[in-house]
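Dock adenosine-5'-triphosphate; give full complex structure.
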Amino acid sequence: MITVIANLKGGSGKSTVTFNLGLWLQMKGQPVVAYDLDPQQTLSDVAEVRREEGYAPPLQVNQPRESLQDDMKYHPVQTQVLVDVGASNMQAMKIALTIADRIVIPVPPSQPDVWATQRFLNIVNNLEINNRPEMRVFVNRADTHRAVRESDETEDVLRQLQGVELINQRLHQRTVYRRSLSEGLSIFELSRRSKAADEFNRLAAILYPEL
Ligand SMILES: Nc1ncnc2c1ncn2[C@@H]1O[C@H](COP(=O)(O)OP(=O)(O)OP(=O)(O)O)[C@@H](O)[C@H]1O
Ligand SMILES: [Mg+2]
């Protein structure tokens, strides 16, 4: 299955989610290959940190040899392919969206992020695609204070968007997600019993109910 983690705006958590999802899938015994199509190369860098530190298993992060589409021929169907994209390479992003079985869209709870998500969905809807990918959105970087309503308001808007399904599992703004990228460890390796690990496990289990 090809899952593209995407949104237009920077900093929504695409690379964080891709990295942790890749390690979660491997923990579940799945063969995983990730593609980093963002010129910033965050995912490649964090995978390199993980390799240098000797943490096992490594996360295999590729660049397309020729085209992303052609590369898919080399992976058996049971391989879980994850693709991290960035808006600074729109052409690469559009190719990834065209071949995706599924697009997973992290959205921070802010008005600019909601606008960017709506623009992003317009881009997907205007692509010429034979088989429309499934699209799932969820709130990332939700505030941990109950009194702050932005996450509820963001979910209310996301729930009403056409052609995309809201996942009722937020990831909150937590330092362990930042540490995850800087140390090359998943949040469940960093702190197995944390709220972050719990919420991430639940999100991943919703995305891959068969595992
Ligand atoms: N839930 C979270 N809690 C705390 N920090 C987070 C969370 N999600 C992401 N971050 C942090 O926010 C920053 C941006 O995240 P990340 O690099 O994953 O976003 P991105 O969408 O890939 O950004 P870009 O578009 O620049 O590639 C990173 O420092 C990351 O560790
Ligand atoms: Mg990124």
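Observed: Residues 10-16, 38, 40, 42, 86, 140-141, 171, 173-174, 177-178, 181 surround adenosine-5'-triphosphate (ligand 1) (CB under 6 Å).
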